[in-house]
Design goal:
The complex is a heterodimer of chains A (about 120) and B (about 160). Chain A is α+β, with helices and mostly antiparallel strands. Chain A is about 35% helix and about 20% strand. Chain A has 4 helices and 7 strands. Chain A is globular and about 35 Å long. The two termini of chain A are about 15 Å apart. The mean pLDDT of chain A is about 95. Chain B is α/β, with parallel strands linked by helices. Chain B is built from 7 helices and 7 strands, in the order αββααβααββαββα. In chain B, strands 1, 2, 3, 4, 5, 6 and 7 form a 7-stranded mixed sheet that branches. The longest helix of chain B is centred in the middle third of the chain and has 16 residues. Chains A and B meet through β4 and β7 of A and α1 and α5 of B.
């Protein structure tokens, strides 16, 4: 379960984007102890740390659509990549995720199948 | 330019159309699939959004009385935050709709959130209306979610 600090950070990030009239479908925060990062969904990402790239590639080709979502385009992938980039010692299954939020409405957004498989092994 | 599929999935795009009885429609995509007629021309849609944001609030509005049954709100504050953008649109003359199921590009269920209270439904300013894409089918004013694909299928929704 993510910390209150991360939830707050994610909330603030979503509110910032909302106020700027930016329109990502979702934002999320990821943490590993004191390392906390946020990111948003995006139409493509190129640079992933190797272990995340490998995990995403198990689902399919990165930046292609699978299970109704874009592999590597989710906010989860972006924020996780930022945390994993900090140290090679951090493993994907060690990451904690905040509630994903839709900036336009601040609603919680359910985790997609691709992210469940990548980050929770489900 | 067109909205790519990956752009549609990753963005929460506001799009606009005019139905056969000149009712101005706003829809929030929430990462859902766009009708082809909208997806084909991102520039026009972006320009319309910019113009809508410049409009002044001119209408009282109504909120879908069934909204709390359709959308789960954690608190009254969350409900207010949810409604903000849809009320913005209704105050400017748009029937405002939202995607019902989040995080699922393929799901085509939408619901009416807010609409303007006006004797005339032709409420959006005339200059802006000329820029809205006209569709062939009526948008429902139902309080329950509906499948948007059934409305836009005849308008090359793919």
């Amino acid at each position: 379960m993510a910390s209150q600090i991360l939830e707050k950070k994610t909330w603030n990030y979503a509110m910032k984007l909302k106020n700027l009239k930016l329109d990502p479908a979702a934002v999320i925060g990821v943490e590993y102890y004191n390392i906390k990062r946020v990111d948003r969904s995006t139409k493509s990402r190129i640079h992933f740390v190797k272990r995340l790239r490998v995990a995403l590639s198990r689902i399919g080709k990165i930046n292609t659509v699978k299970n109704g979502n874009l592999i590597g385009g989710c906010a989860e992938a972006g924020a996780a990549n930022k945390v994993l980039f900090v140290s090679k010692g951090i493993q994907i299954y060690d990451l904690q995720f905040s509630i994903a939020r839709r900036p336009k409405t601040m609603q919680p957004v359910p985790t997609c199948l691709n992210c469940r498989q990548t980050f929770y092994g489900i | 330019m067109a909205y790519s599929i990956s752009e549609q999935i990753s963005r929460d795009i506001d799009w606009f159309v005019l139905d056969p009885i000149d009712k101005s429609i706003h829809v929030a995509s929430a990462g859902g699939r766009l009708p082809q007629i909208i997806a084909d021309d991102d520039r026009t849609n972006s320009d319309i959004l910019k113009e809508v944001r410049k409009l002044r609030p001119e209408y009282q509005f109504q909120i879908n009385p069934n909204l709390n049954f359709i959308v789960e709100f954690e608190s009254e504050r969350m409900r207010e935050l949810y409604l903000r953008d849809f009320i913005f649109m209704a105050e400017r003359g748009f029937f405002s709709y939202d995607k019902t199921i989040l995080g699922n590009f393929e799901n085509d269920l939408y619901h009416l959130v807010a609409w303007p209270l006006s004797d005339s439904i032709t409420s959006v300013n005339e200059l802006l209306k000329t820029k809205l894409i006209k569709i062939n089918n009526l948008f429902p004013e139902l309080y329950a979610p509906f499948n948007i694909r059934s409305i836009l299928l005849l308008d090359n929704y793919s």
